[in-house]
UniProtKB/TrEMBL annotation:
Main location, first listed in the record: membrane
Residues that span the membrane, as ranges: 7-25, 45-66, 73-91, 103-124
Membrane topology label: Multi-pass membrane protein
Domain of life: Bacteria
Recorded GO CC terms: plasma membrane
Family under the similarity heading: Belongs to the DoxX family.
Subcellular location: Cell membrane
Name of the protein this chain belongs to: Putative oxidoreductase
Organism: Microvirga lupini
UniProt keyword terms in alphabetical order: Cell membrane, Membrane, Transmembrane, Transmembrane helix
Lineage of origin: Bacteria, Pseudomonadati, Pseudomonadota, Alphaproteobacteria, Hyphomicrobiales
Stored Pfam families: DoxX
Length: 139
């Protein structure tokens, strides 16, 4: 049973990467274009802290989605989410359930996981590498 599950690990990781990227990009499109709904305070100026965050969310999310430059992009996005949590959520309360920072914490740690694991299957990064095992679970 374990070997069967191990064989599917790169695909499960890819699914986590893709779903995370789609959710993350939605935050960027909301701030930049007001889609699917505008943020409470309206769309931020492009060169503001929120505007730069929105660009990172959209462009970084797109790169994570396709699995291009996954590790360095995931590192930057994990940092963005750590900063978002400590700047905007933690001052209200240290507890994510009380300060609304659940998503920031989860995004941060999923991106941190991608820094260490890489993109999994179905990625441009994977297609650009020579064939052979890339992770311990693929041996």
């Amino acid at each position: 049973m374990s070997s069967t599950l191990d064989r599917w690990s790169p695909y499960a990781l890819a699914l986590l990467r893709i779903v995370t990227a789609l959710l993350f990009m939605e935050h960027g499109t909301q701030k930049l274009f007001g889609f699917p709904a505008p943020p409470e305070g309206g769309t931020p100026p492009l060169l503001s802290l929120f505007g730069i965050g929105a660009i990172l969310e959209l462009v970084g999310g797109l790169l994570i989605l396709v699995g291009l430059l996954t590790r360095p992009v995931a590192f930057v996005l994990a940092g963005e989410m750590a900063v978002a949590y400590w700047m905007f959520h933690a001052p209200q309360s240290l507890y994510p359930a009380l300060n609304g920072g659940d998503a920031s914490v989860l995004f941060c740690f999923v991106f941190l996981l991608l820094v260490f694991t890489g993109p999994g299957a179905l990625s441009i990064d994977g297609a650009r590498q020579p064939a052979g095992p890339r992770h311990s679970w693929e041996r």
